[in-house]
Amino acid sequence: MSRRTIFHLLFxxxxxxxxxxxxxxxxxxxxxxxxxxxxxRIAPRVKGHVKEVAVRDNQHVVKGELxxxxxxxxxxxxxxxxxxxxxxxxxxxxxxxxxxxxxxxFFKESSAALKLATATEERFRRLLRKKTIAQQTYDxxxxxxxxxxxxxxxxxxxxxxxxxxxxxxxxxVKATQAELDIAEFEANHTKLFSPVEGFVxxxxxxxxxxxxxxxxxxxxxxxxxxxIVANYREQLVRHIQPGQRVVVHLDNYPWQLxxxxxxxxxxxxxxxxxxxxxxxxxxxxxxxIRLSRRFPVRINLKQSxxxxxxxxSDARTIVVY
Length: 321
Prior knowledge:
Shape: elongated
Order of helices and strands: HEEEEEHHEEEEEHEEEE
Oligomer: single chain
Radius of gyration: 42 Å
Strand order of the largest sheet: 1-10-13-12-11-14
Largest sheet: 6 strands, antiparallel, barrel
Distance between the termini: 42 Å
Helix content: 40-55%
C-alpha cells in the first residue's frame, strides 16, 4: 500500500471523526432505547369467589369496561345485616331520647318542689327564731325540705345517667354506620373495571377461583401514554433539553419513522446494580477502556393511527437540538 493511499485513509478517518464530533453539537443518536407504557396490575379490593371473567387474554378494552366480577351475594347479605343493626341502634337511641325527656320533666317537677320546700323551710326558720311557732312544727317542714332535696338529687342523677347513656347509644350508631359504610364499599367493589384503554395481559384467573385482596389477577397494558426511554452517553446529555424534537425508529416498524419530544432527562443514575437507591441503573457499554455512563432520557412518542406498539420493543432515537 502506497504512502498516498495510507494518507488518504488517515485523512478519511480524521474527516469522519471530525464530522461525528461536529454532529454531536446538532443532534444526538443512540440505539440503546426501548418503548414502554404503563402496565397496570388489576387486583381486587375484596376477597371472594370469582363469578365472571368478562375478558380474554390480549383483548383490547376501553376505560371503564368490565373485566371480572366477584360473587356479590355475601357482600349484599352483609349490607342487609348491617342496615338492620343500624336501624335497631337508631331505634334504641330514639327510645333513650324519649326516656331522657320524661326524666327531665320529672327533674323539673322535683326542682319546683325543692324550690317551694326551701322557701317554706326558710320562712318557718325565721318564725322559729321569733318563737312564733313550736320546734315540732319547724321539724316537720325541715323533714319535707330534706325529702325534696334528696328527691331532686336522685332526679339529677337519673338525668346524668340518661345523658351518658345517650352518648353511648350515639357512639353505637356511629360504629354501626361505619360497619354499613364498609359493607357497602366492599359490595360496590365486587366488579373490576379497566382503569385505562389498553390490552389485557397476564390473565391468570377463571370463574370459580378464589380471589384475594391485593393479589393481581391480570394486567392492562395502557394504550394511552407511550414513551421512549433512551440511554444517552453523559457527553451528549448536556445538550438535551425538554421539548426538543426527536426522530424515532422502532424495530417492529423498520420502514417507518415516528416523531417525539423530549419529556425530561434523569438527574442521576445508580453506580451499582445492587444499591439502586430509587435511581435507575444503566449498565455501561464496554466500547473503550473507560466505561461511559449513560443517562435515561424520557421521550413522549406521538402515536400514529393504525400502528401496533409493543411495550419493551427496541428503538433508535435522534434528538435534534
